[in-house]
Amino acid sequence: MAVLFFKHVQKSILLPLLLALLLFNPVIVFLLTGSIGWCIGSVASFTFLLIYTYLKGADWAFTLLVNVLTVGSICFHLEVTFRHGFPEYVIENLYTIRDDYYFNKPHLLSHLEDKEYSVTYKTNQQGYRIPEFAAANENVTHCDWLFLGDSFTQGAQVPFEELYTSQLYRYFPNKVIVNAGISGFSVADEYHYYRAEGRKLKPKKVFLQICNFNDFMNVAPRRNSWTEYLMQYSDLARYLLFNIRYKPPGELPLGRWTEPFYPTQKDNATYNIFYNETSSVKEADLKAFAHYVSALAQEVKADGAELVIILIPTKEQTYFRYLDEVITSFKIHPEQLDLLKPNKIVSHLADSLHIQLIDLLPGFQEITQLQFFEYDEHLNPHGHQTTADIISRHLKDESSDVNLISKELFSDRYPAYSLDGQLFTYQSIRDGTMELFLNEMKNNQSHRLTFNKVDESHPMLSPNQSLIVFTEGDPAENQTKVAIMNSNGSNRRYITNGKNEYGAIATFSPSGRHLTYAGWFYDAKTEQYSNPQIILLDMELGTKKAVTRGLFESWRPVIAPNEDFVIYISKRNGNFDLYKLDLKTEKEEQLTRTSFDEWDPVISPDGSYILYTARKNGNWDLFELSLSSGQNRQLTRSLGDEWDPVYHPKESVIAYAGKFGMFQSIYRKPLGR
How many CB atoms lie within 10 A of CB 258? Predict the structure, then answer.
């Protein structure tokens, strides 16, 4: 009928054009894809095909194309109607399918909620989980430790800061730690992930987390069905198929997850690793388990790294009441079980492969406090902390002299001590903007000083602790102001208060008489900014003086304890070097001549040394330069970035900020001289 109808229609482009717009309404395509490029490209392509087949007189091809596009159009319209008309029924998909495994979607910002937890789940552009307020556009290129595992390592039930890998970082703050745990991962998935992506991070240690149910059943390479691909791209299909593929907790036999325990003898014999009776399926899974662990161990060893196994117990192994519940409800006789069977299997395998095993069961059994959620089978915050505590004891040889000062793990920067060393100021992100804080060292209590929608950064207390100088504004806009306020956050006023006058990163002199900062101007006529110069402000007289010329870009000035000279950085030969300016003679001296940038200089309390950060080996490390001998020594050699250093005024220690993979905090370490 369709062919007969089209034969009687006058040949023109009007019909195929109208059909194209009807079947693939550009508005519908845009709502579905969210991309103008996809919208224009797809509509133009289908329009061209319809017009081409119609004008060629290929009625059968035109009819076939119209029918195919009609079916596709119906599906697209249903999908758009479901997404935008019934958003409360959309089941969010956290994962994207890859060749032999699946992984977190990049740029996720989701809220996961259950009756036992409420968590924000955020990922970076690589799909790795990150803190809620961390920037999602940053990559991790190298790591010290890589953690592979299933949902116990993923920890979607707890905030990022409470993951056992995050808690472990508090013990080892100079390590770059990456958590690559994914719910449902088996050792086969972990093996394929490591081969495809994990090894690119060049870890020194790879931790394989094993739990006593996911990893001992259905151990095979992942074969994704067409329904899984359909569920990945279609919210409607995901809604219709989700409860068929994944049994909701309310339909579970005991109203909670009880794997690997099952109501039937057959399922226990097939899947339950604790159940003595076996089956061909269970034996095949155990053989595959040993194969993939061995294969992963070989890959890790070939990369020059070390594999460590972490074995997490189940609730039934740890607490009798959960065991009693399943054996009573499922009518399992205790003699049919060996609750140490998986531990024996993994221990024997680890010994045969000469790899370290960290079995958490003894440590968990020593603690009476519940380590798991009541209805959910996963670790609660206490369980994650216990896991980190046990692992840290096994890794004590990896400890360093670096200590973590920050309580937060994602954005603290620019520490600056008070003259007596009892306080320090710093900046940290809150509510989407950088805010200022004052920390009492004695009890490590922090007080937030600013509450607004403006970025404030680089705070420093005056010597008498009555004032705080800081930078206000977004540095990317090149229009920041040097501001000053009372130490309680009141009475804000501006040092750079002239028309088109800007500045940043101010510091007090030890006496409090002078203030120095990098200052620049905007020329409205040329529509250009001047190079930043080092400005010296007399706080008593209110006079400002540029002590460097504007021929070069100069930043980060600090005044010596005797107030005779200023140290700063200046860009003269393509990178920033350290310079010293005598304030009496106005003689300038170049202190470093390197092919890499130096930044963040500070002067020791006795005026003999300069502490600074430099990008010598592709990352920022800390260095100390002797002003008398010119000798330079490197203080840190980590994979992370250390910057913003400051001397303690009374002790032979330094504080500094740093970024180690997903973590960005403030640290403290002995000076070592």
Answer: 21
Backbone angles phi, psi at 19, to 5 degrees: -65, -45
CA dist., res. 60 & res. 557, Å (int) = 78
Contact 607, 627 (CB under 8 A): yes
**CATH number for the domain whose boundaries are 405-670:** 2.120.10.30
Please tell me the distance from the alpha carbon of residue 247 to that of residue 104, in angstroms, as a whole number. 21
- Dist. CA 122–CA 179, nearest whole Å: 13
Half-sphere exposure in the Cβ direction for 332 (13 Å, CA): 27
* Strand, helix or coil for residue 106: coil
- Which of 353, 411, 398, 359 lies closest to 177 in space, CA to CA? 398
**Under 8 Å between Cβ of 191 and 291:** no
Q: Which amino acid is at 642?
A: E
11 to each of 6, 62, 68, how far by Cα in Å?
9, 13, 21
**Residue 429, SS3?**
strand
Choose the weakest-confidence range: 26-35, 294-303, 595-604, 635-644.
Answer: 26-35
Contact present, 598 and 614 (Cβ < 8 Å)? yes
For residues 174 and 145, what is the distance between their CA atoms, to the nearest angstrom? 11
Write down the residue that tokens 């009441």 correspond to.
321
d(CA 334, CA 338): 8
Q: Is residue 657 within 8 Å of 664, Cβ to Cβ? A: yes
Pairing, β 177-179 against β 145-148: parallel
CB under 8 A, 24+ apart: contacts of 417-424: 417/646, 417/647, 417/648, 417/649, 417/655, 418/461, 418/465, 418/649, 419/461, 419/463, 419/465, 419/510, 419/649, 420/649, 420/650, 421/648, 421/649, 421/650, 421/651, 423/461, 423/465, 424/461, 424/646, 424/655
pLDDT tens, position by position, 184-215 = 999 999 999 999 999 999 999 999 999 987 78
Task: For 232-283, give the DSSP string.
Answer: HH-HHHHHHHHHHHS--GGGSTTSS--TT--SSHHHHHHH-TTBS---HHHH
Q: At what angle do helices 36-55 and 59-85 cross, to 10 degrees?
A: 160
* CATH C-level class of 95-398: alpha beta
Q: Are the C-beta atoms of residues 47 and 29 closer than 8 Å to each other?
A: no
**What gap in Å lies between CA 183 and CA 156, rounded to an integer?**
8
Coil vs helix vs strand at 557: strand
Three-class DSSP category at 551: coil
Residue spans of the domains in the chain: they are 2-89, 95-398, 405-670
Neighbour-count burial of 9, counting CB atoms closer than 10 A to its CB (0-12 exposed, 13-18 middle, 19+ buried) = exposed
Q: Would you tell me how many other CB atoms lie within 10 Å of the CB of residue 549?
A: 12
Closest Cα partner for 497 from 525, 519, 467, 514?
Answer: 519
Q: Is the pLDDT of residue 23 over 90?
A: no
Q: Report the length, in residues, of the chain.
A: 673
Instruction: Let me know if the fold of 95-398 is the same as that of 405-670.
Output: no
pLDDT at site 12: 64
List, in order, residues 6 or more apart from 502 with CB less than 8 Å away.
478, 479, 480, 481, 496, 519, 520, 521, 522, 529
Instruction: Give this prediction's pTM.
Output: 0.90
| Residue 57 neighbours by CB under 8 Å, 6+ apart | 11
Structure-token match 């670096």, residue found: 402
C-beta neighbour count of 398 within 10 angstroms? 15
Q: Give 504 or 28, the one with higher predicted confidence.
A: 504
Q: What is the 8-class DSSP label of residue 152? A: H
The span from the first CA to the last CA of the chain, in angstroms, equals: 93
Cβ contact 436:449 at 8 Å:
yes
User: Which residues neighbour 440 within 8 Å (Cβ) at sequence distance 6 or greater?
Assistant: 422, 423, 446, 447
